[in-house]
Amino acid sequence: MAGHSKFKNIMHRKGAQDKKRSKAFSKLSKEVTVAAKMGGGDPDGNPRLRLAIQNAKALSMPKDNIERAIKKAEGGDAETYDEIRYEGYGPGGVAIIVEALTDNRNRTASNVRAAFTKFGGSLGETGSVGFMFDRVGEIIFPVEAGDADAVMDAAIEAGAEDVQSDEDGHTILCGFEDINEVSTALETALGEGASVNPTFKPQTGTPVEEDKAGTLMKLINILEDDDDVQNVYSNFEIDDEIMEKLAAE
C-alpha cells in the first residue's frame, strides 16, 4: 500500500494548504463537541476527546475554539449529531468508505449519493465494502521526530504493528483498541505526533488507470469538502507519475 499512502500524504498536504481554514476548524470543532458530549470534557478520562484536541492543535486551531466546543457540550447547548458510515464504489471499481457527523441524515445521504452518482460511482449498503478494510490506529509523526530506525525502535517498544517512513514523515499503525496506549507511549518517546486517528486500512489495493484517476479524485475531493463528512477512505492504487500529476493540478 506504499503507493496509496504516498498519494494520500501528497493530497492531504496540498489540501491542508488550500482548504479554507474555517471549514477545517468547523469539522475539528464538531468532533471535539461530539467527543466531549459522549465522554465528558476531561481529556484525561476521555480518549476520543484527547485525540480530537491533539489533532485540532496539530492544525493550529486556537485554544479558545477548542475550549468553546467543550463548554458547548458540557453546557447542553450542543447540537445532536449522528455518526453515519456510507460505503460504495468509485470510478475504477475502488472501494470507498465515508464517515459523517450530521444533524440531518436526509441532507447528508442525499449529498453523498449525488456525489457518487455524478462521478460514476455507486453507493451501496453498510458493509458492502467494509470487509475489505481493517480498522486500525494511525499515528503520524513529522520527519523531525527522528530517523527511520529510531522511530521503528520507539514504535516496537510502544506496541505498534507497522511503520512506514519516507521523505514526508513517519506513519505508524497499531491495533484499533491500542491507539491511546500506543500514542501515549510514542508521545513520551518522540514528542507529540502530527495526528492520531482511527482509520480504515485497505487489505488490498485496486489499481486505477489515469483515465479514471482524475474522476476518482474529484469524487473524493467533493466528499471531503462536504461539511457533514469527517473522513473518506479508499483502497485505490495509482502509479507515482500519475499521482504527482494529479497532486500538481
Report on this structure:
The chain is α+β, with helices and mostly antiparallel strands and 249 residues long. It has a domain at 2-74: Integrase, N-terminal zinc-binding domain (Arc Repressor Mutant, subunit A). It is 49% helix and 23% strand. It has a four-stranded antiparallel β-sheet. A four-stranded antiparallel β-sheet has the order 5-6-4-7. It is globular and about 45 Å long. The two termini are 23 Å apart. The relative contact order is 0.18. Mean pLDDT is 88; it is low at 1-7 and 9-16.
Q: What features would you highlight for this structure?
A:
single chain; Arc Repressor Mutant, subunit A; 4-stranded antiparallel β-sheet; 9 helices; 10 strands; 23% strand; globular
Provide the structure class: alpha+beta
Label the CATH architecture of the domain at 2-74.
Orthogonal Bundle
Q: Determine and state the CATH class of the domain at 2-74.
A: Mainly Alpha
Say what the CATH topology of the domain at 2-74 is: Arc Repressor Mutant, subunit A
By DSSP (H or I, 4+ residues per run), the number of helices equals: 9
- DSSP summary, beta strand count: 10
Query: Could you give the order of strands across the largest sheet?
Result: 3-1-2-9
Q: Gap between N and C termini, in Å?
A: 23 Å
Q: Which percent band covers the strand fraction?
A: 15-25%
Question: What sort of overall outline do the alpha carbons produce when their principal axes are compared?
Answer: globular
Radius of gyration: 18 Å
Q: Biggest β-sheet, characterized? A: 4 strands, antiparallel
User: Can you give the mean pLDDT?
Assistant: 88
List the helices and strands in order: HHHHEEHEEHEEHEEHEEH
**The CATH superfamily title of the domain at 2-74:** Integrase, N-terminal zinc-binding domain
- Roughly how much helix do the residues carry, as a percent range? 40-55%
